[in-house]
Design goal:
Number of strands: 15
CATH architecture: Alpha-Beta Complex
Largest sheet: 7 strands, mixed
Strand content: 25-35%
CATH class: Alpha Beta
Oligomer: single chain
Distance between the termini: 46 Å
Shape: globular
Order of helices and strands: EEEEEEEEHHEHHEEEEEE
CATH topology: paralog of FGE (formylglycine-generating enzyme)
Length: 273
């Protein structure tokens, strides 16, 4: 099996990318896009954002700092994940690559990589004559609302033991995620949060446009001394954050650069209006 190194992360080529369309559902495709998907408006206001990436003070890994954002602008986001039927229309038009599908009505399109999601956003923008894009990690935290769980670990007992934080974080994420849930459920089955956004706590993680940052902080834990951006790896958000190599469609078989692998990789889009 060929091994590929991307941005310092190991990927098992031919495994983690996924296999196109091996479960061919009977999909009813619309002739053209006539209606916009149901949207949720996220109100403007101040917001505290737990920054994305890996952060250190000296050699010690620490919690990502909080960034206070004043008067963050309002925006609109899809209430539901993009569905298999919606994605299949883009495939039929030749603008998106085919990927795995499962039989069932109104299922989210999973087994999606970053480039698949970007291609769909470009196609959907042309279809609707509006600009659609992936959210940033900050925007995801905003529309996650009361479904967002802050996984900061705080100060640990032994700062000289680098494994302590990793073990505590791993146990925390396992407890939050539970056992792998590889059953796709109808959109909306995961319920709505306080803002009306559906399935934030479901088993489909969402691609964001946020790159992976490896950042050195000053002793105050807030001031950035230096930061290295790796855009071959993107933040995906769900029950817990993870960082996935952007060509990966199924993180359970490889390509998870940091964090516990998500059950499924899917997406929803933000409307720039």
């Amino acid at each position: 099996m060929k091994r590929v190194i991307i941005g310092g992360f190991l990927l098992l080529a031919g495994v983690a990318v996924g296999t196109a369309g091996y479960l061919n559902a009977d999909l009813i495709l619309p002739a053209k896009i006539t209606d916009l998907p149901e949207l949720v408006k996220i109100p403007a206001g101040d917001f505290d954002y737990r920054m994305s990436g890996k952060y250190k003070i000296g050699t010690q890994t620490v919690d990502a700092p909080i960034q206070h954002v004043e008067n963050a602008p309002a925006f609109q986001v899809m209430k539901y994940h993009v569905s298999q039927n919606e994605y299949a229309r883009c495939v039929k038009d030749g603008d998106c690559r085919d990927t795995d599908r499962r039989k069932g009505n109104d299922l989210p399109q999973a087994n999606i990589n970053y480039y698949d999601a970007k291609a769909y956003a470009t196609w959907f923008s042309k279809q609707t004559k509006k600009h659609w894009r992936l959210p940033t990690s900050l925007e995801w935290q905003r529309y996650a609302g009361d479904s967002y769980v802050d996984l900061a670990l705080g100060d640990l007992d032994d700062k000289n033991d680098p494994a302590q934080r990793w073990l505590k974080q791993y146990a925390q994420q396992v407890a939050l995620r539970g056992d792998a849930d590889l059953t796709l459920r109808q959109r909306g089955a995961g319920g709505e949060n306080n803002l009306g956004v559906a399935d934030i706590s479901a088993n489909v993680w969402e691609w964001t446009d946020t790159c992976f940052y490896n950042t050195q902080l000053d002793e105050d834990g807030k001031t950035i001394l230096k930061s290295h951006e790796t855009c071959a790896v993107r933040a995906v958000e769900g029950k817990h954050p993870a960082f996935i190599i952007e060509i990966v469609r199924d993180a359970n078989v490889g390509g998870c650069a940091a964090g516990i692998p998500p059950d499924f990789l899917g997406f929803r889009l933000v409307l720039d209006d």
